[in-house]
Amino acid sequence: MLRHSSYITRHQQPVADDDLEAFPYAIAQTPKALPLLANTDINTTHPVAFAPVHSISDDDDLPVLDATVPTSTMSSSALTVPSSDGPSSRHNLPDRIRASRPDLTDLWMSSLDLVKANPLKGGDLDLKVVTIQGKKVVVRVLANAADASSTTSHAFFDSIQFIRRIMHPHITSVLGVGCLQHHEDVAVATEFMDQGSLGAYLLQLKKQPSSTAATLRGPLHLALHIGRALDYLHTTHNLAFGSIHPDKVLVYRDSTADDDNPRVGAKLSVFHLMARGPHGAVYEPKRACSNTSGLANNVAFLAPERRTYTDNEPTMASDVYALAVVAAMIWTTEAPHSALYHEQGLVRGDVFLYNHSDTFPYSSLPGMPTPLADLLRQCWQVHPASRPSVATLVAALEQFAQ
């Protein structure tokens, strides 16, 4: 079993800075990591029946969605964006989309036409940030929509209809759809999380100076938030999230936070579920490379049954495995298998894990209550059937994370 070295200091809140929009963990691992944003006052509106943790805007211009709107039953040809050439075609793109996809009418955000989209730092190439009435919003872009193939546009719009039904206070919500400037691109908008990714946030915690420190502990309630989101997906939608990883977990400053109580919360990115749509109609965004997880050692967060050289469908059991790894990472603020990757390097470390599926990501969890530590180890069992349900793990986190 690998030895795990823990980091010892006191938990302090990261220092505020303007220079981060939501960069991934891998970029934060560079020698000079970007600083953490903590002063953007984002409020998120959730179209949910229960009170949201965080609301994106108090402005009436950002729509509140109705989850009861059914997916369009039109034919495949009617669902796609007609393609034609010339400036007039681009100018009429919003009208043509609404005509061919009336199921998107209630989501339409005309305000997207008026704003400039900037790249999301460290994000996928199709992720942008726009500012609407002083509020930052993240958009996923279908570039050159007027020229997109029928299959691509069909999948993009169907995936939006799928993820709009995902409504939970710890999963980002769809805010609307619209055309960006020049009417060449179509985008779906969701909330901007002002603290960036979980991995970057934890790295910033480790960098805080400590004078009276005993131990550094990440805020374990973030793992509870992730667990509640997974429990919702598993029980309400019978759906595995499939990539519980520090890049896919976003952190925000809680609306109840103040200088004396700088509380943060966590949400899963709903954009990740665009590739998990119903009936096989999914949208796979273009990426710069096949490994976009942020962490170079993404294998460390994969359940053993998913460590193959071919794509394996995620399961609820593999979600539980990954959630337990992330919970341990939050507690220790150390990456999983840190000793292994330090000694072997990234490639050899991955190969080792492919061939030694029974290696736990953490050999010890210093200071963690024994019942919770034992449960996390149960979540890391090789055989999926031996792992507890996410509801069991959530119940334990509720006991120890408050």
From TrEMBL:
Region (Disordered): 73-96
Any one Gene Ontology molecular-function term assigned to this protein's record: protein serine/threonine kinase activity
InterPro entries, alphabetized: Kinase-like_dom_sf (IPR011009), Prot_kinase_dom (IPR000719), Ser-Thr/Tyr_kinase_cat_dom (IPR001245), Ser/Thr_Kinases-Pseudokinases (IPR051681)
Biased composition (Polar residues): 73-91
Pfam assignment, any one: PK_Tyr_Ser-Thr
Domain of life: Eukaryota
Ranges of residues in domain Protein kinase: 114-401
Protein's name in the database: Protein kinase domain-containing protein
Lineage: Eukaryota, Sar, Stramenopiles, Oomycota, Saprolegniomycetes
